[in-house]
Structure formats: C-alpha cells, structure tokens
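To whoever is on call:

I kicked off a structure prediction for a single chain this morning and the downstream step that reads the tokens threw a length-mismatch warning. I double-checked the sequence; it's 310 residues and nothing unusual in it as far as I can see. Pasting both halves so you can look.
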Amino acid sequence: MTVQLPQIDLLNRRANAYILAHPLAFALQVLKAFRANQGLLLAGAVAYYALLSIVPFLMLVVVVLSHFIDQADLLVTLRRYLEYIVPSQSKSITAEVAHFLDNRELITWVLVATMLFFSSLAFTVLENAMSVIFIHRVAIRRRHYLMSAILPYCYILALGVGILMVTLVAGSLQVMGQESVRLLGYDWSLGGVSGALLYLLGLGGEILVLTSIYLVMPVGRLSLSHAAIGGVTAALLWEIARHVLVWYFTTLSQVNVVYGSMTTAIVVMFSLEIGATLLLVGAQVISEYERVGQNKQDQAPQPMVTRPAK
C-alpha cells in the first residue's frame, strides 16, 4: 500500500532536487528574475519609506513600552538591536528617541496620528514590492483593500510586542552575564555566555521577523517552510553585509567629510537600501523556489494510456 504525499510536499521535493543538482543555475535564475522585476528600484522605494518610518515607529513603541519597562533599559536594548538594522548609527537614532521621550508632554492626538501614518508607509510600500515579485500569486488571488489598509498597523503592534519580549529577555541575560560559576576551584564568568546568547537572540529575532514578513506580506497563503527559507537566506546575507558595513564605516569611510551634518541620514539610507535589497532577494528566492517546483511538476512525464484493440 502506497501513501500519497500532499501536493506541497511533492512540489518541495522537486524543487529541492533541482536546486541540489543545479545550485548555480538556480542562483542565476533568482538574480535574473530579480533584475527583471526591477529589484533595485523596488528596494530603493522600500528603503526611502523605511527611512521615513523608522523614527516615528520607534518613538511610538518606546512611548507605549516606557509605561511597562524602565526607560533606560528600553533604550539600551533598542540601541543594541538597532545595530542589526543600521550598523554604526544606532547611537544617533536612540538619542533622537530619547530626546523625544524627554518632551513627551508635547504629544497630541494629531502628532500620534501623523506618526502612525508615517510608521505604516514602509509596510505599505513593502507589500506593493512583494506583489511585484509574487506576481504569479497576485494574478490568481488579490488581497482585499481593507486587509491591506489594516495589515501595517497589525504588524506595528506585533513588532511592539516583540520588542517588549526581547527587552525582558535581554535584561535577564545581562543580569546573568554579571554572575559567575565556581568549577574546579576557579570562578568562571558568564559574561561571554551572556554575550553569545544576546547575539543569538538578535539573530534569531532577525530570522523570525523576516520569516513573518514573507509569511504575511505576499498575497495568498505561503507555507511556513517557504517563508523560513527566505528568512534564513536574507538573514545570513544581511549578517555578512552588516559586518562588512561596520568594518567599512569604522576603518575606510570618509562619509562624514563629504556629507557633514547629513552623514547620519546618508549612512542610514545606504544601510536600509542594502537591507531592503537583501529582503527582496529573499522574497525572490521563495518565488523562484515555488516556480521551480511547479515547472518540474508541469514537465513531469505523463503516464501512457493504452487502448484495447478493437
């Protein structure tokens, strides 16, 4: 007795077999499709609106979370994990957020509504960029306009909850780093373990956020395994790019000489441009992964049907 595998498993098997047999051809296919979709132009749009959105979003989140968490601890955690998004510029952004907190009594409902609007712009543009990359899904099924309008604010709320959880866990790990364990007559500090766990927490959160973006933003239902493939791909590429950016800005860059007071905005924009490009490349990987599985299914040989002789 044979057991039929679900359709999605069959598509995954075909895609995995093709990619393992032709990894370079698949990589070239992803890059060609990304270029055909004007990926760099889409990434520029996402990075521009992300630059407009990041500060209002952080201000909203910090104002709300400061009612539940100590403001200093929140800002320390924010600065640490902003390094995963804007390398070498987290200090400047955190200082702006802290200055806003010191003047929170000036917040009005009009200002809150304005910040909510600008905070949602990046998610709206990202959804539109995803619809270009996943055009084969949009052609089959379109998302209701009300869902598209509500989705950015739901995602802002989800990210706020995520920042709250990360702050609590990071605080516990920092406390653990101040402790030591006595073993074989020696006191072993847990500072190194705490630092490693904080890095893994940031990397895990990065993969989780990227996976959730790929799971929610494209039209139609995307399997968790496909979203995880894109999330891991984009996260690993960004980790490489992030370390290169940190090295470049701390050793070779003379951007402050060229741009002067505009340095922070230029560097943040450049980092967001690279991050948005890798984010959309991860989406293109998922899209081509789906196409490969479907194409291999279409090309599968059909069983021969014999007719009885008359």
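Update from on-call: the warning came from a stale cache, not from the record. Cleared it. Sanity check on the structure: Residues 1-5, 300-310 have pLDDT under 50 and may be disordered.
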